[in-house]
Amino acid sequence: MTAQAGEFIAATPSEAIPAMAHAVARQGIIDCVGVLIAGAQEPGPGIVARLVQDHSGPDAAPLIPSGRRVSALDAALVNGTAAHVLDYDDVGLNAHPSTVLVPALLAQGWSLGSTGRELLDAYVIGYEVWAWLSALEPGALHDRGFHPTAVTGTLAAAAACARLKRLAPREATMALAISTSLASGTVANFGSMTKSFHAGRAAQNGVLSARLAAEGFTATIDALEHRSGWLNAHSPTGRAVLKQDEPELGRIWRLPQTGLHLKRYPVCYGTHRAIDGALDLVARHAIRPEEVASVHVHTGEMQMLMLRNMRPQTGLEAKFSMPFAMAAALIVRRVGLDELKDVFVTRVDVQDLMTKVRCSTTPLRDPTWDVDYAPFDQVTITLNSGQVLEGAKVTRPRGSWQQPMNRDELRTKFMDCAQRQLSEAQASRLFDQLWGLESLGCTRELALLT
Questions:
Q1: Beta partners for residue 296, in sequence order
Q2: Angle 318-312-317 (CA atoms, 0-180°, nearest 5)?
Q3: Domain definitions of the chain by residue range
Q4: What is the C-alpha to C-alpha distance for residues 147 and 335, in angstroms, rounded to an integer?
Q5: Rounded-to-integer distance, Cα 191 and Cα 87, Å
Q6: Handedness of CA 36, 40, 42, 45 (dihedral sign)
Q7: Tens digit of pLDDT for each residue in 81-90?
Q8: In the predicted model, what is the mean pLDDT of residues 294-311?
Q9: Is 377 helix (H, G, I), strand (E, B) or coil?
Q10: Going by fewer Cβ within 10 Å, which terminus of the chain is more open, N or C?
Q11: 2-263+420-445 belongs to CATH 1.10.4100.10
């Protein structure tokens, strides 16, 4: 199976990739670049950036958007951390595909001088390997404490970078096999700087795996399917598929089917349906925060496994807190970047309202979605008057593949993020370049830098 994947990575013609897959990849790249630029000014990526060395050789790639040149490996690390630190990046496959794939490809693509079409092809190849690996395991990695963005993302980044470097099938197989020994990241670190470091490290290790393979570095040809290989080692069920007589890669294209879920709120995706429900109730009934006696959220066990912070004191902690999400929605009627600051999180009224939120859970999961969440989330608000306001059962959040952003909505989010460090004119130019990525002659032409 490892060798089958290597053949798919290296030998799939660009013309065989569905046009819809390219269109979704373009969305993911645009969204990720915007969020990355906004996240680059956060403390976590700043710490990582201080620890890497300047580099001026042909292998150099820039930190975005500062333009500081470091090695491509370190650019993937820092930019990947920045792309995930706000938790505003897209969701898919029960993980965050673009926050790993895009920083890896931009770093590798910058040093290689890759075209926009090559970036799009490599993104799709990386995503398809990720989706295929996810389909081989009937359980959820979160249940065993693994962060899929880090664990499966490392392998997907290796596949994407192997494609971008135009490795032969044997070398691509080696890149994927090497990456199986570099994949790590635990759910216990959610709500800390280390969670976003997972994405940066996965991106960096993807670049590294492809480069090692290109130099002749070896790994075992059955690193995925061996009884002590990657699939069994990470399987929460012990029932991972270890053999496929008819390869699925290249025959089944999953990206056009499952798409990407773009975030409207910079917090854990497990809160998004509840936020939609709460905002709808607030708008419909003109609820004032001082009128609220209690808030009940019915959600899933998997979501609450990630939403571990019931009384957050920092913006990072608040990203993984259902009580905070409800408090922000009720008090200021939005959950945006400005609300994810320590000064807002520690406000007396925010802290007080969080104490009024309780959650109930179900172990049921929606089998029709690529995110292992409950079939629906529902918010019920009880007022001091005794009136009970029951919200709708929300099955898909706004911005999901089933309720997607249009071009204008994507541009609005991108501009809001990018203009935190770029001028309006530069941000607008960059959006237009990324929207027309397929015709871009060289990655270095992108207006990514201040």
A1: 358, 380
A2: 45
A3: 2-263+420-445, 269-390
A4: 24
A5: 10
A6: positive
A7: 999 999 999 9
A8: 95
A9: strand
A10: C
A11: yes
